[in-house]
Amino acid sequence: MSLLRCENVTKRFGGLVAVDDVTFEIKHGEIMAIVGPNGAGKTTMFNLINGVFPADEGKIWFEDMDVTDFPAYKRAHLGMGRTFQIPRPFSSATVQENIAIGAMFGASGSETSTDMAMEMADHYIDLIGLKEHRDKPAGGLTPIEKKLVEIARALAMKPKLLLMDEAMAGMNPKDIDEMVVFIKHIRDTEGIAIVAMVEHIMRAVAGLAERVIVMHQGALLVDEPTQKALTDPRVIEVYLGKPPEDEHA
Ligand SMILES: Nc1ncnc2c1ncn2[C@@H]1O[C@H](COP(=O)(O)OP(=O)(O)OP(=O)(O)O)[C@@H](O)[C@H]1O
Ligand SMILES: [Mg+2]
């Protein structure tokens, strides 16, 4: 059984087809990357998966459930977590409190007491390595630390699938390498599937993902194991605007 299945999903904005008849699956515990040039439809695809807006056509299945008409909060409760491109922690709340908020609103949220949520937060603070910042206001953290808190907050919701929007935007190569190791560690220890949008950072895609989906003009161009996808002539053409054999022409 797949964890998530998108079946012929289409989304239009007026006359523009932002996502065009896209079908793919995500398996339990796998790490997949969605890439593609600007305007390809990646963010729209993300928003369709987690229910920010409904699909115009097609179906979305999560485990065995048809979630096509479910709003975002219902999908979150079923185990779809996400991180945002620009983390916006509650600045005056502590790191621990910010993460505990995730635990309170997560899959088991309704049965989670404040004490339990704080305890769960500590587990994820250990995981992200920010123990010494536990009781500090989140507003004072560096951008990369905020990103880690954002990941911990999402993990505290106990997702089966974690959608990471531009997980590594603006990071230097050293931070990217560390983040790649960290994301793989999360998958291994938490046993969840991860879909990462890692725009234009092929170093991260190659190091992180087992499978890559390439989108182009709303359509799914390629769905292949990473090495195959990154050397696929169609993908190179989309990124360079010409076939590879024309490179010296
Ligand atoms: N809310 C919206 N209203 C109208 N058009 C939109 C909306 N969101 C996206 N679009 C359009 O849909 C297309 C796909 O956009 P989307 O943001 O999904 O692409 P993307 O692959 O995430 O691009 P980028 O790499 O620039 O983030 C674009 O042409 C965009 O202008
Ligand atoms: Mg985008």
The count of domains is: 2
Into which percent range does the helicity of residues fall? Answer: 25-40%
The largest β sheet comes out as: 6 strands, mixed
The fourth-level CATH homologous superfamily of the largest domain is P-loop containing nucleotide triphosphate hydrolases
| Proportion of strand residues | 15-25%
CATH topology type of the largest domain: Rossmann fold
What is the N-to-C order of secondary-structure elements (H for helix, E for strand)?
EEEHEEHEHHHEHEHEEHH
Radius of gyration: 18 Å
Mean pLDDT, nearest integer? Answer: 89
CATH uppermost class of the largest domain = Alpha Beta
The helix/strand class is alpha/beta
Which CATH architecture of the largest domain? Answer: 3-Layer(aba) Sandwich
Question: How would you describe the overall organization of this protein?
Answer:
α3 packs across α4 (114-128), α3 packs parallel to α5 (143-156) and α6 (173-190) packs parallel to α7. The protein has a six-stranded mixed beta sheet, with helices on both faces. It has two domains: 1-79 and 163-200 and 207-221 and 230-249, P-loop containing nucleotide triphosphate hydrolases (Rossmann fold), CATH 3.40.50.300; 88-158, no CATH class. The longest helix is centred in the C-terminal third of the chain and has 18 residues, at 173-190. The chain has helices at 42-50, 72-78, 95-105, 114-128, 143-156, 173-190, 202-208, 226-230, 233-240, and strands at residues 4-13, 16-26, 31-35, 57-62, 65-66, 80-83, 161-164, 193-197, 211-216, 219-225. It has 249 residues and is of the alpha/beta class. It is globular. Helix content is 38%, strand content 24%. The model has no long low-confidence stretch (mean pLDDT 89). Adenosine-5'-triphosphate is lined by residues 13, 16, 18, 36, 38-44, 199. The site of magnesium ion (MG) has 2 residues, from α1.
